[in-house]
Amino acid sequence: MGRKEQRFYRIGDTHCAFIGLVGAWSPFGLSFCLFMVSLFRLFLFSFAFFTMPLLAIEKLQFNRDVRPILSDKCFFCHGADAEHRKGNLRLDEQVSAFKPAKSGEIAIVPGKPDQSALLSRISLHEEDDDVMPTKKSGKTLSTREKSLLKQWISEGAEYQGHWAFTKPMAPVI
To answer: Is residue 98 a contact partner of residue 89, using CB atoms and an 8 Å limit?
Structure first.
């Protein structure tokens, strides 16, 4: 018995060797090859579709991701209004947020979430007197908002100017 000659069939951009391997015993022949190529392409597309978002995790942006949380939950007591400001802490300005507050603690230590008083205060139990936002304010942070703040601090807590005063830039494609 001689060795069977392997045949290749060009299908699109793919060379198919399945026919030469299974053609002798498979009743499907070229149909089987087309099916296998389609199945392989489907697998590659599915793999890329589900894993690419994981690989392209974008760094959080202050104006898009963090400012809305701080504005809604924190700026009333820790914003621009000096009459309502508590603890001599402004979270809307980088300089103030990175220096010690009235308590002596630093609210935000870039790249060090474990040393940031902001994260320790928002992680306290709701019944604790030092929890932020306070019970009196009637506001609470969701688990997602807490994790976004933690991620932002871990990434370096980069502040951005208010969007109305920054030059628009085209996104990188």
So the answer is: no
> What confidence tens digit (pLDDT) does each residue in 31-89 have?
666 677 777 787 777 766 666 665 556 789 999 999 999 999 999 999 999 898 998 99
Tokens of 161: 């100017």
Q: Which residue is it, tokens 């701080």? A: 70
Other residues' Cβ atoms within 10 Å of the Cβ of residue 9: 17
* Closest to 62 measured CA to CA, from 153, 165, 167: 153
Render 40-99 in DSSP notation, one character per residue.
Answer: HHHHHHHHHHHHHHHHTPPPP-IIIIIHHHHHHHTHHHHSS-TTT--TT--SSSHHHHTS
State the maximum Cα–Cα separation within the chain, in Å, rounded to a whole number.
Answer: 97
